[in-house]
Amino acid sequence: MTKLNYDLVVFGATSFVGQILTQYLAEYFATQKEQIRWAIAGRSQQKLQHVKDTLGPIGQAVPILVADANNQTELDALCAQTRVVVSTVGPYALYGEPLIQACVNNGTDYCDLTGETQWIKHMITKYEAQAQQSSSRIIHCCGFDSVPSDMGVYYLQQQAQQQFNAPATQVSMRVKTLKGGASGGTVASLINVIQEAAADPALRKDLLNPYILCPADHGNTQRQTYIKSAKFDPDFNAWIAPFVMAAVNERVVQRSNALSGNAYGNNFRYNEAILTGEGLKGRLKALAVVSGLGAFMLAAVSKPISQVMERYLLPKPGEGPTPEQQLAGRFELRFVGKTDAGQSLKVKVTGDRDPGYGSTGKMLGQAALSLAIDHAKDGEKSTVQGGFWTPATMFDDRFIQRLTKHAGLSFEQV
Ligand SMILES: NC(=O)c1ccc[n+]([C@@H]2O[C@H](COP(=O)([O-])OP(=O)(O)OC[C@H]3O[C@@H](n4cnc5c(N)ncnc54)[C@H](OP(=O)(O)O)[C@@H]3O)[C@@H](O)[C@H]2O)c1
């Protein structure tokens, strides 16, 4: 194997979440024994220098690499120097493809924060065969969507196997607590998906397909039931409402099942929703969430309204929750799983910091380190071949240990 200059390059170190990630890695390497050769990258030397200056003494040793997300030659040169790239340059549907192409050209491993299912599907269709040939492992969705959902189900299935010797073929995830804000990049990505879907009926149909990310021969014929309205959930004795990230997480979890040979069952069903509470108050809150989501979708579909929202109401690229808001944020997810024989179990996944940024930066950092260290190809520590994987099919218990020890997450049976 060729000797490369770097183990990990952070592409998009200047983005809102890229700065959190970069700071997290610098602090991690300053306090932990694990050390790797890493660099920061992006399109602007000046902006990257500014990020480097904020990293303290350890940052001074971190090299800067300049590459534009639209310049294939520069991206190829970047990927040829490193074993792993972690990217926060989004919306990925607008900027992400040339970097995927450079990674599969060079056999470079890659992880990111995209939740744009239509783009992920397009990348799998176009580049999976080449990724398998070049041994490049591509792992999308390594932030709040979809690490807690995907690894939460992975963890629940392990408990189910240990206790019942059978998978939980029906799993529901309910968001109990979610405290945090949105950044300009996330808002831009969300509005981009809604507008693309509004303009393209075929894409709308694709996005509704629960198995959109699964290989064609996934073998699960089960009809999935999604939470589209306010409902009472007897498993939690509370009202529930649609969860905005469900459309991504549910598809990723289904892909994990398909890629693991239907280890969760070929009749596996999964859905997500948020808990809004008991009684009339819970019901009214659920109805309010449904109306709020509907109003946001309508506003996003209309170009003039979405432009006004982006200009005056929503965070702009580079903006997001303050450091205080990030620290004050947290999340708690509850999962209930049922086997075909009717046995059931509950699991809780929690995280400190706000889910989309403070916590996402740490999850993405640990996913990148897991690729660079635990699953290093040249160290032969990994049996995972090239291709497009989900967090739960690329990583294993070592990732859960990393998340628990270093990223403020907890996984436990309740
Ligand atoms: N899955 C999750 O849980 C989660 C959570 C948070 C964010 N996200 C996603 O992560 C992405 C980043 O979000 P954000 O709010 O951090 O974004 P942001 O602050 O708007 O930053 C965008 C980044 O893209 C870079 N960029 C734009 N065009 C480029 C080009 N041609 N070449 C190189 N770099 C270019 C920008 O570089 P400059 O600084 O040079 O302009 C900047 O670093 C979004 O897609 C968002 O949806 C996902």
Description:
- This is Saccharopine dehydrogenase NADP binding domain-containing protein.
- Residues 9-136 form the Saccharopine dehydrogenase NADP binding domain.
- By secondary structure, this protein is of the alpha/beta class.
- The protein has 16 helices and 14 strands.
- It has helices at 16-31, 45-53, 72-79, 92-95, 97-106, 117-134, 147-164, 184-199, 201-208, 246-259, 279-301, 303-313, 323-328, 355-374, 391-394, 397-406; strands at residues 6-11, 38-42, 64-66, 82-87, 109-112, 137-139, 170-179, 231-233, 238-241, 269-277, 330-338, 344-352, 387-389, 409-413.
- α1 (16-31) links the parallel β1 (6-11) and β2.
- It is globular and about 55 Å long.
- Bound molecules: NADP nicotinamide-adenine-dinucleotide phosphate (NAP).
- Residues 12, 14-18, 42-44, 47, 68-70, 88-92, 95, 113, 115, 143-145, 183-186, 189, 317-318, 320, 356, 360 line the site of NADP nicotinamide-adenine-dinucleotide phosphate.
Strand order of the largest sheet: 3-2-1-4-5-6-13
Mean pLDDT: 92
Please give the largest β-sheet: 7 strands, parallel
Helix-residue proportion:
40-55%
Our count of domains comes out at: 2
Number of strands: 14
Classification by helices and strands? alpha/beta
What ligand molecules are bound, each kind once? NADP nicotinamide-adenine-dinucleotide phosphate
Organism: Acinetobacter dispersus
Family: Belongs to the saccharopine dehydrogenase family. Enoyl reductase subfamily.
Domain Saccharopine dehydrogenase NADP binding: 9-136
GO biological process, one term: glycolipid biosynthetic process
